[in-house]
Every structure is written in C-alpha cells, then in structure tokens.
Amino acid sequence: MPWSHPYLNSATSPWTPGGTAGLMPSVPRHQAVQGLVFHFRADEDAHRSFLPPLLEPSAAHPGEVVWLYAHHTATPVGEDWSDWHPDRLGTTESLLGVVCEYEGVVGTYYNYNFCDTDWDLALMHYFGFPSKLAHFSSSPEHPGHPDLNGVRAGARRTATVDRLGQRLVTARATLEEKVELSDTPLSKVLSSYGVRHIPNVDHAADGRPLAFDLVKEEGFDHSFGDLWHGTGELTFHEAENEEMHLLSPVEILDVYHLQFAYKTGGVRVLHNYLDD
C-alpha cells in the first residue's frame, strides 16, 4: 500500500479540511508542450563547470547546451480539473540545460528554469529543476494576420525572458522546413536530469539538507506533433542574480519549433549524494 497520512490530503501544502488548497497539482499528469528549442555549443570549460558530480560531458556532444522557450499545458490524472482557473492549467517556461551523460546515457541537466506561475515554481523544485519566477513575451499569432499567422516556412518568432527588471534572454528564430524527429538529436538531448536539493533550516542539522540527490524525470506515452527546423540568434544577457551568460552560444547548431505531449509520473532517483 502507498504511504499515506490522514493530515496530508493534497499533493502539497497548505493542507485544509477539504484538501483543495494545495499549491501544486498531483502527479501523474498529462503534459503538452510547444515552443522554441535552441541547440547550441558553449565554451567547454564553462559547460563542464555547471555539471554536478556523476554527470559527465558527452564525447559525442562536446559543450552542447539546450535552451527551451515553451508554453506548457498540464492536467492531473484522476482529478476533476474542468472548473479550475486557467492559470492552474498552463504556464510558460524557459529551461537551460547542459548536454551530458550518466553511466553512458545521454541527456540534459537542467540547472536553470524560469516560469510564470507559483505552482510550476514549486513543481520544478520538487522535480530537481531549480526555478525562478520571470516575465515572458513572445510573438503573437492570429490566423487572419498576413504574417503572424501560425507555424509555417518563413515564420519568424521572437521570445524574451525578463526578471528583476532586467533582460535575461532574447531569442529570434526563422522557421524553414518540416523535419522528422528521427533525423534530429532531440530525442536524446531532451531527456531530463536534475538535482533535487531541499535544505534543512533546522540549526541543529548543521547544514545537512533534507534531500540532495540526482534524479531523472520519468515520462510515458510520448507523442510528437509537427517539428520545424530553422535558424536563429540567441543572447543570454548579463544580469543581477544570474550567470546564464557563462553558457552563451559559441555556435548555434539547430533551431526548432516543436510540439509534444506525454504523461509524467515524477522522477526516479539515480544517486543520493547524502550517502557519499
């Protein structure tokens, strides 16, 4: 039987008599993502400095980094979300991760995640993808507009991320042609590694965290929509409380607009650093 406690009647706090005030929706969840992906190469020394213990640079993907700007739709499995406020069903995210290997398996370690909803901020931390709140802007779309009329060859997209009144990211992309997923590295590099760290603020803990482990997101039932390849420019701006500029692109390898959906069951712990 799964562990339970009568007081914990929702996925996360606050816990209330009806169990409907929890910040984060429960897992498993159905998730659908669409947006821009920049696959590029950064300075290899900087790339290596962002990797935690046990994750190694990949000889097949030296210095490679992935940045995503994604509109994310998510609903919990087994809960009635039909009357939920729309902001509880969607969020915008900007994820930055370094391509690496764990025991020979290629994936991407996402050490940066920005979002615009409180529930996603909490969820990303629980999943091992450190997150901050930010402001997002992207090119609008309307089927009746002669230029901003959807995803197609020649479509141009601009996306920006701002925090604390400063620009963090500016991305510009031009889409060129549809491609097949099998002809791209995306199925490998989008596999997600994270580090889950929960500090213990009890002074008697003497700095030992409650949790500190290497995790991998577990996803099921993946499906992909149209995948477009293009060209683009990506700038990470120097800003207070950030170090993203250290991973600034040296060479843009690929730019994509993608759509995919899957069911997430949470994460699988690969290694507990507290046991070291």
Describe this structure as you would to a colleague.
- With 276 residues, this protein is mainly β.
- The chain has one domain (29-275): Acetoacetate decarboxylase-like (Beta Barrel).
- 7% of the residues lie in helices and 47% in strands.
- Strands 1-2-3-4-9-10-12 form a seven-stranded mixed barrel.
- α2 (118-127) links the parallel β4 and β5 (131-133).
- 29% of the residues are buried.
- The model has no long low-confidence stretch (mean pLDDT 95).
Descriptors for this entry?
276 residues, Acetoacetate decarboxylase-like, 7-stranded mixed beta barrel, 7% helix, 12 strands
In short:
Helices cover 7% and strands 47% of the residues.
CATH topology: Acetoacetate decarboxylase-like
What is the overall silhouette? globular
Overall tally of domains: 1
Mean pLDDT: 95
CATH architecture name: Beta Barrel
How is the topology of this model organized?
Elements lengths: L28 E13 L2 H6 L14 E13 L13 E13 L2 E11 L2 H10 L3 E3 L1 E4 L17 E8 L2 E13 L7 H4 L2 E7 L12 E14 L3 E9 L14 E22 L4
Parallel strand pairs: 4-5, 4-9
Antiparallel strand pairs: 1-2, 1-12, 2-3, 3-4, 6-7, 7-8, 8-11, 9-10, 10-12, 11-12
